[in-house]
Specification:
There is one protein chain. The chain has helices spanning 17-26, 44-52. The chain is an all-alpha fold and 57 residues long. The chain has a domain at 17-52: Dihydrolipoamide Transferase. Helix 1 runs parallel beside helix 2.
Amino acid sequence: PATATPNIGGSRIFASPLARRIAGDGGVDLAALTGSGPHGRILRRDVEAAISAPGGK
């Protein structure tokens, strides 16, 4: 049987729906973020921090 392994380097990005929407509206590349949620999930606060950081987006 196949074992569950993380999809490192794959195209799947684990982000909440709200984080995805905010990132899309703010022009943030989710692949460039590190998530602070469970199992590395990208949350709203991660996207908002990226937008408000110096250099933004």
